[in-house]
Amino acid sequence: MLSILFLSGCATMDDPAQARNDHTRRFSTELDQLAQEQLKESLSLDQCIALAMTQSYEARQADLKVQLAKLDKDIAFANFLPQVTATAGLTTWSIPQSSRDIQVADKTYSSLSTRTTLPLLVPAAYFLYQNTKLAQDTTKLAAHLVRQTILLQTTVSFFECLILQDTIAAKTTQLQAAQEQYKRIKGLADEELVAQWEAGQAFYLQEATQADLQHAKRALAAANASLLKTIGLNPLAKLTLKRENLPDPQPPRNTPAENVIVALASHPSLSIADHAIVIHENMVRMAIANFLPNIGAFVNASWTTDSFAKHVHSLYGGFNATMDVFKGFTKLKGYKAAKLRKQSAEWERDSLFLSIILEVVKADNAVRNAFDAHAIANLAATTSEEKFDDYYKKQREGLVTVNDMLEAQAARDNAQTALTRANFERHLALTQLQMALGIIEPPNISPKTEN
């Protein structure tokens, strides 16, 4: 009967296709409602980061692992608590028990017994408990690292969207200029004042600018979808971003060597690796402790309503020691394996140590390259603008060819687009450097716990 009861409560999936359709409809509805609530107005970078911290499934999973680690620690602590077992019974005989025609027990009686066991010395359990405490600290560090990653991803996606928005605005202006230029040169070509191939080149510039504009619009749609996914919203939702006046970023003052020192002292990944080594050290000690006996105390108490019993109440206790005698080979190999795993954890930390140094050097170089690129792009944009203005005036006076003027226009347009990207890439490079140093600080916002 118990088997039938439990089996009748098992979850099943009789129609997988219907279950998939039901989830699709339900989750799509939830995403639409969430988008309507959160996307009523344009989002700033801080608002996107706040949404990512609350809605991102990666942040939720990290927070859930912290809760699970706490439960594991509490479960491990239960090994030190006394264990109490109670047994109750009701016995009814069809014929009262007798011996040599003398009744020795009531026909019906009840009984109750309890057994209390208290662990006094359980070395392996102690190391297990210490490891669960370390694991809880590790999951907190891992959750912080996940939030740092989410902050970086959100920032990168946000700036990528702004870059593409500026690119689209520049391409739209360039397309209008290219269209007007083509109309003017086409008219001159029809009057045979310029060659037909020059009109064809102007038409090519117009079509190339139109294609670049469409490409930028599609790239913006993909960037918006990526940002929406990062912040835990439907990638198909309509997103508008609030442009804020970002402070002009300053180049880093620390040298690469100084940045490396900061990273080695602050990066949460190294702290996680340190915890892993201590955990494996406890595993080695636990393997040694497995050779020792476990010592405990016990107390048994029993009661009965049998009127023939000489002692209705009974109480006894004692001490016990348990030890696996015939598992020495297994324990020895377990000890050697624990030592090898500790060595592996130490090598992983050393490898991570070198990787972080490399990442800091790369990020530091990327920041300096970004500032250099922005300075060059600014000069290129200024120079190309002046050159186009000069060539435009001279072409109207017939001092330069239409081809030279169109080439100057294309160079100016490309320089403006490059300057737009270089401006935001300075902010991105600085954010990535903070991530490499491990000092990027996400907001203290708890993720959403209910779906």
Structure in words:
- With 451 residues, the chain is α+β, with helices and mostly antiparallel strands.
- 67% of the residues lie in helices and 11% in strands.
- The protein contains 10 helices and 6 strands.
- The strands form 2 sheets. The chain has a 4-stranded antiparallel β-sheet, with no helix packed on it. A two-stranded antiparallel ribbon has the order 2-3.
- Helix 4 packs antiparallel against helix 5 and helix 5 runs antiparallel to helix 6.
- The longest helix has 69 residues.
Distance between the termini: 36 Å
Mean pLDDT: 86
Helix/strand order, N-terminal first: HHHHEEEEHHHHEEHH
Indicate the low-confidence ranges by residue numbers: none
Structural class: alpha+beta
Strand line-up in the sheet with most strands = 1-4-5-6
**Beta-strand percentage range:** 5-15%
Overall, the morphology is elongated
Q: What gyration radius follows from the Cα positions, in whole Å? A: 37 Å
Number of helices: 10
**Biggest sheet, open or closed, and with what strands and sense?**
4 strands, antiparallel
Secondary structure: number of strands: 6
**What is the helix content?**
55-70%
